[in-house]
Amino acid sequence: MSISTQSKSSSSSQRNTLTSGQRPKWLVPVVMVGAIVVGAAVSALITFSVASWAIFAAVLFLIAAPIAVTSIEGSRKGSDAALTYVVYAAFILAVVPLVSVIWTVLARGVPTLSIDFLTGTMGGITGLIDQRAVAEGGAVPGGVLQAIIGTLVITFWATLFSVPIGLLTAIYLVEYSNDGWLGKVVTFLVDVMTGVPSIVAGLFASALFGLILGPNTRMGIIGAIALTVLMIPTVVKATEEMLKIVPNELREASYALGVRKWRTILKVVIPTSISGIASGVTLAIARVIGETAPLLVTVGFLNTVNWNVFNDWMSTLPTFIYQQLMRPVAPTAPDPSTDRAWGAALILIVFVMLLNLIARLIAQAFAPKTAGR
Amino acid sequence: MSTNLSDQEQKQAGEKPASALADAASAGGRAGDKIFSGLSLGAGIVIFLTLAAVAIFLTWQASPVIEIPADEVSGGNGFLSYVYPLILGTLMAAIIALLIATPVGILVALYISHYAPAKVAKPVGYVIDLLAAIPSVVYGAWGITVLSPALAPFYNWLANNLGFIPLFQGPASATGRTMMTAGIVLSIMILPIITSMSREIFVQTPKLHEEASLALGATRLEMIRQAVLPFARTGIVSAIMLALGRALGETMAVALVLSTGGLQWSLIRSGNNTIAAEIALNYPEAFGDRLAELIAAGLMLFVITLIVNFIARAIIARYKEFSGAN
After folding, report:
1. pTM for this entry
2. Which residue of chain B has the CA closest to A346?
3. Residues 322-351, chain A: which have Cβ within 8 Å of B?
4. Which residue of A70, A287, A310, B318 has the fewest CB atoms within a 10 Å radius of its CB?
5. Does residue A5 fall inside a structural domain?
6. Residue A62 belongs to domain spanning
7. Helices marked H in chain B — which ranges?
8. What is the phi/psi pair of residue A147, to 5°?
9. Which residue in chain A has the smallest CA separation from B32?
10. Residue A96 sits in the same domain as residue A218
11. Do the interacting molecules here have an ipTM over 0.90?
């Protein structure tokens, strides 16, 4: 009975018995085309837009394709197909915002960029100037030099504080703690520190200096302290991972030659893992350079260049973006402020991406050769 | 024999000055060892002190809140009635973000670990990391200028057609700067956390379990349900908890996107607020009692995220003990 049906189906459709009962190759593409066409129709019923078209087409496909597969291959293959399509859809869904963000930053930031924008400051830029710029057209008045310098200086100080502390803590955890209770406590505290919300770090630094120097004190160094709190756990984690993969044979060889432990760490362990540490630190810098909330409550706003973190308010790229968007210089003509915000956002993203790229290059160029991988 | 003996004699003779030298060197070396181990221990202690200082200074600066008369607190009904709408708003934003980011994040992790060809998987991992690298203020700016206007018509539709549900009660915000938008922006920001942590665990699933399942004729879906998910369940839960901690504390996306206001259930009207956004919006101009209020609210946030992170870490610790991974 079963043999006869098999031979019948194979002879009628000219297909191999092995592939009988499987969906034909054209099925899914046909369903997809159908979903796109019907999606366009449904979207046109409401007001047509590319976004709603894409959404309707995707939803229709995700419903119809598994049903079509189920009708031929049964529910097990049908649900398997459903998961496959949902997984691909989720991936596309995750990439869409990324593309949109980067496209928006490029499209709105690039026209603003100019030598004047990069080397000018906001000193003397008033609402009147902005209104005139809107009325007459031309380049966006003002610049971001003060914010670039502020960001670099504050990040530099934060790095200066957090790298030695983070590095030494990681050395303690890997080389000295011997899995003792203190090592476990420190590991736990580092984990807790990773979870501190950035605004709380800012509040802490502000409260600390508020007690010493009086409330509402704003200085670059306070922001640097807040960023340090956020940066230390990242540095510790990255360094710890790198120190752990240094083979124990290297340490033992060094001890066998009579070298002291601290010399072994400085001359053998750290040089072996330096590339990983350097890339970890670079990634940590990339993470804090974009932090906004802690700087908002600690460094204030400023229109002119200030190199000194120990005196006066400062401007940074993230807070500059926030300020220009939320409080335009000319409330009646916000366009120049919005343009400046996007210009600054582009510069900030370029910084972050450069740091990420540098981290990858360091890691790749000097990667220690581990055995068997 | 005699040559051997003379060799030994020579060694003994030669050892004396050498060992004396070593002693002299080790005097300096021992001090170096002590200094270095002291320094590294000190760094560990600095971390402890920093965290203690965070708790102590926040509590100290927030303590005036207890003494402020109830009618002088913002809102005029005491600190608790000031802070609870903020806490609810914070939870609301975080829950919306989690509801979106959890399924998408896990599916993307599955895509990378089990669906994408090996050549594609690595660049995709980079792309997801890129998502994590974009500063939050840029997401916030994107949320105002691109996402909010794009979602406004959709909110209008929701208010017209599903307005009977309290969550979608109209009239919808014309600008689209609502709790829903803030939640969506947050979900994009926490997606990389869920994806990268889940992916790491999915990849660690024992290959033999997967192959055994497939060899019994399971489809890929069944294999994932039988082999991958049971192995990864605790890891996924802890990834979600860590993402929740991040979503609770995230400031800029909400501060920029949401047009803030009083507590309400409708997600598509302007209104609601979160602790972090309240602090960011008001701290720069605050002084005196208002400062104490905001710091007290920050302390609340600190405690909430601390609890969430504790739970996450506890789950991870259990997972490490039992799974045999790592």
Report:
1. 0.85
2. B138
3. 322, 325-326, 338, 341-342, 345, 348-349
4. A310
5. no
6. 22-111
7. 2-62, 64-67, 79-110, 118-133, 136-142, 148-162, 179-204, 207-215, 220-223, 229-249, 252-257, 275-282, 289-323
8. -75, -40
9. A262
10. no
11. no
